[in-house]
Every structure is written in structure tokens, then in C-alpha cells.
Amino acid sequence: MCTIPVPQEPLRRVAVTGGTHGNEMSGICLVQHWLRAPGELQRPSFSAMPVLANPAATATCRRYVDRDLNRTLNSTFLTARAHPDDPYEVTRAQELNQLLGPQASDGAFDFILDLHNTTANMGTCLILGTIHNVFAMHLCHHLQMQNPELPCRVVLYRLYGEESNSLQSVAKNGMSLELGPQPQGVLRADLYNRMRALVAAALDFIQLFNQGTAFPAFEMEAYRNVRVVDFPRTETGDLAGTVHPQLQDRDFEPLRPGAPIFQMFSGEDVLYDGEATVYPIFINEAGYYEKGIAFFQTEKLTFSVPALSMLAPAPTLGP
Questions:
Q1: Each residue of 137-174: pLDDT tens digit?
Q2: Three-point CA angle 175, 179, 185, nearest 5°
Q3: Alpha carbon of 273 to those of 241, 270, 297, 313: distances in Å?
Q4: What's the whole-model pTM score?
């Protein structure tokens, strides 16, 4: 997997995006508030820009209009010639690429915080593409230290060899905040407040980095996607069963060989037949039914993250 370079200069261009999915209300309502009152996103060394990522889907409280925006921000769509008949999210992806990118360019934004909700029992989750992202790992660690009483898990979402499709990939660096459980189209005050506090703490970390703070090495625990598991289905593709009651709501808990994972409509249980213990996440997520995903299997990793050195002082001009 590629390594995300550690910034060598202060981060000046930061965006906070919500509404990538138009029915995930915490990020939508926060961004709408910040568009009216952006002062909360200002720090001495930078001002973060709020962006409503998918305004058409947000207006109708739908995940998307034509296709999932968070599966559209890849080179295939971003470099294609625009056409009047393009799906709405393809056009919007190209607009976001011009606003926040262009992807893989020196002119791209330094960092994107993309705000999401899930119907699954994921709690507070910090989502990165790769383990090789020292700056973002330190940001995650900072958020965990700000809330030691609250589980704040790190997920490495990208499967091996998979190109990123997510909004954060348009910038030089970024991460997603994923909070749940929250039903689609519903706003819970506790998750809204938690997300607001996490964004504030993330911007405070960037300010600390910009002003020359060094951060020591540490040990990190994270969950890395290894496999997608679909529901049991009939020959025609209809559901033949659902998530077993003993698995439901047990995101990040160990799933051992022989444990039940599905309950068939015919009555019998389907057992996990893997050889190793895994950690399911996004269990029974509503937005993933159409994608053929009942849950993701992850492996738990523990690894060392090197120190994040202070920025070198800017050279002073001679007389």
C-alpha cells in the first residue's frame, strides 16, 4: 500500500465535509450550521472550509441520487470527459475534485475530514485508508486521548490492492468520522454533539502541528478489513436469512469459529466457518444491503507509529 507523506509545511487548506450520503444527518446539520456560522472552524493558523458534499441527495434525504458518491471519487470518473447525461454523482464528484483537489496534485487541499453516520452499532469510529499514514494516525491518537472514557476505534477500510473511492482521497490526506448507531434520516443530539466535539479536537490537533508541536511515538490498535460477507440468498438473489441475534450489534467483538452469524428464514443457523478469530464491523448496516454486504470481517492489529517531528521553522529572509 502507498505511504501518505508526512506534511513538511503547515496545513492551510482544510475542509470539513458532510452529506456525502444525503441521509446521514449529523454531518449534514453540522455543515449547514457552519456554512451559516463558520467561526467555530477558525484556528489561528487556518480556517477549515465547510462543504455540503451531495446537496441534491441531502435535499431529498436519500443516500444518493443516481450512484453512491463515496464510490465515485476515483480516477475513472474524475478524469472522464463530462457529459450532460452523466449520473448526478459523477458530475458532483468532478465538481468536488475541482473544489478540493485536483486529486494527486500539489494544489489539492491539505486535509479533509468527512463526516458520516451508520445504522450499525459502531460507536465512534475513525476511518483511514492505510496503515502507512503517520500524520492521520497521530490525529487519531490525539482524538482517543481527548476522550479516554469513550471507545474511539480506528478502521483501515481499504482492501488490499483496492483504489480509494472516498471523498477524502481527493485531498492530499484525510479521514472519515463514522458515528452510530443512528437511523437514516434521523438526527440524535448525542451523536451530533459528539461529532462536533471530535471535529473541534481534530482542528485543534492541526493547529498544534502547525505551530510546531512534536508528538511522540506510540502503539496503535486498529481493525483492518480483510473480507466482505454477504447475506445468505436464494437462487434469484432474494434474502434467505438475516443477521443472527447473537451477532447483531456486536461490532468489533471477536467472532470465533463455529459461532452463529446468520439465521435462515427456514429456521436453521449458519455458523462462521473460518479458521481464525475475526472482528465484524458495520453489522447489518442499512446502506449496505444493496451492495451485498451483511458485515465486514476485520483483523485486529497492534503496531508502532513513529514520532511526528515538529515542523522545521520557515527560513527567514536576509536583509
A1: 999 999 999 988 889 999 998 765 566 788 999 999 99
A2: 115
A3: 17, 9, 12, 56
A4: 0.95
